Amino acid sequence: MSTSRPSASPHWERLERAALDEDDAAFDGALDAALATARNEANPEAGLQAALSTRLQAELGAEVSLEAPRPPPEPPPAVRAPEAGPFGRDSGVVAVVRESGRSLRLAQGVGLLAAGVAIGFVWGRAPAWQDARAHALEVAAATSSARAPEGGVPTMSAGEGAAAGPTGGDATPPGAVARASEANAASDAARPAATSARVASAAPAKTKARRATPPVDDRLRFVLQQLRKAQLFLRASEPVRALAALDELDARVPSTLLSDERDATRVLAWCDAGEAQKARVLAARVLERAPDSPYAVSLRESCAGRQELLEQMRERTSNPAR
Amino acid sequence: MFVWRPRRIALAADTHAGLGLPDVDRALPPAATPPVPATFEQLYHEHFDFTFRTLRNLGVAPMSLPDAVQEVWLAVHRQLSRFEGRSSHRTWLFSIALNTARNQRRWQRRHQHTTPLPDDLPDPATNPDQLHVGRETLGFVHEFLTTLDEPRRVLFISQLLEDLSADETAELLGLERTQVYHRVRDLRRAFKRWVLARRKEST
């Protein structure tokens, strides 16, 4: 058996290129990418574990309980709203950090920003304390550093800054200092309402923030699971179910995560489903975005690539002069 | 100064309870952080894929994989009460899978006089639409693995495919951690040489 290439895998092409270039770093990168793909491919087929569980259960009897199947892949779970204050150490932001295992500072910053934006939004809309806000904004620059935060709220949260910005909170108007006591009194009077509004607004804000930033590990795991499911359906010549798996994935996780893999799988699924036109458009987009993608060869050799060739041939036939 | 070194994983003759399984847990030094005790069910659900992949990468034939996986988990069930947490769960499971793979190969040598065609025989006329990057990639990775002797194959699987820690791999192979790093680097270079050689063959 003689083939032009030892493997049709695009990973092989990358490895060959890096090896020929004598670029060890590039080769190691290509090797790691190939091994990640191989590792994913070496996983058991869907349903095998359930079948083996039944066999093993019969062998081991009632000593063990393996019947319960593993839960199906779920979208990243939303973290339950905590009862502590919105910025306390036991707040939902910190819980997200713990669950995701990511940088504490980064997530706290994101949480503060999200909560701050929500506060700013409510602040800008709530009519009950509009007057107090107007006064408070006038003296914000003069008083913000002297005022202690309440309930653990940082001295100047992003939301407060955002609220102050459009009305010129940074530029203290003439006479602002003279009106400082008046403004303080007004804002003190408004504080209970503002505080309750902050608490009320922070809860949905936190939920939104958590939904927007689920644990990265969970998202990645979910994406890989759905991709694998789609590829298994493709291999089983069930492109419609493969597309359904990809649609479910797109609905739950932003398409920026492993976008090349997702788009390449979708192109192949559309090819199998007879949707060559859609496949061609998407393949062109992928190739334009990442011409050196490991999936470029697959895409060019798929129905999408062949369709393009056919059109070029038709064009040449209809315009022989060209 | 006397330095206690773990002995290498038992070879085929050094078996446990006639099952071809080494008592790796006793052979290894105490792990730096003992693993949290786990029930059989927890281990099974958490590491089923890991044992399947390990057996597959160790060269167990696809048609024998379900039996091999079952054998591994029956052995885990038998030996779990004796597991003292001296090694990590994955190191322990890997060693059981390794011995199961050896037993499978030995059984096949004894009972099969003809060499069956591999299930994943490459098809030169691959339909582009059916082209599957994963399968092709796994194919050439396995092809490279067949060129390695067992210790280097174990090193490749544990370090490059399964991401075991250097300490876990060192325990598994009876090496120092620095030796693991050096040998992994050598393996990468060997893979590169193999790619170039295969390219030369095909052109």
Q: Could you walk me through the main structural features you see in this protein, from its secondary elements to its overall organization?
A:
The complex is a heterodimer of chains A (322) and B (203). With 322 residues, chain A is mainly alpha-helical. Chain A has three domains: 10-41, no CATH class; 92-212, no CATH class; 216-318, Alpha Horseshoe (Serine Threonine Protein Phosphatase 5, Tetratricopeptide repeat). Helices cover 65% and strands 0% of the residues of chain A. Chain A has helices at residues 10-20, 24-41, 48-60, 92-100, 104-125, 130-138, 140-143, 158-164, 180-212, 216-235, 239-252, 259-272, 276-289, 296-301, 303-318. In chain A, helix 1 (10-20) runs antiparallel to helix 2, helix 11 (239-252) runs antiparallel to helix 12 (259-272) and helix 12 runs antiparallel to helix 13. The longest helix of chain A has 33 residues, at 180-212. The two termini of chain A are 40 Å apart. The model of chain A is unreliable at 79-97 and 122-211 (pLDDT under 50). With 203 residues, chain B is mainly α. Chain B has two domains: 20-116, Rna Polymerase Sigma Factor, Chain: A (Orthogonal Bundle), CATH 1.10.1740.10; 132-203, Winged helix-like DNA-binding domain superfamily/Winged helix DNA-binding domain (Arc Repressor Mutant, subunit A, Orthogonal Bundle). Helix content of chain B is 59%, strand content 0%. Chain B has eight helices and no strands. In chain B, helix 2 (40-57) crosses helix 3 (65-79), helix 2 crosses helix 4 and helix 4 packs across helix 7. The radius of gyration of chain B is 18 Å and the shape is globular. The model of chain B is unreliable at 1-31 and 121-130 (pLDDT under 50). The chains are: A mainly alpha (322), B mainly alpha (203). Chains A and B meet through helix 1, helix 2, helix 3, helix 10 and helix 12 of A and helix 2, helix 3, helix 5 and helix 8 of B.
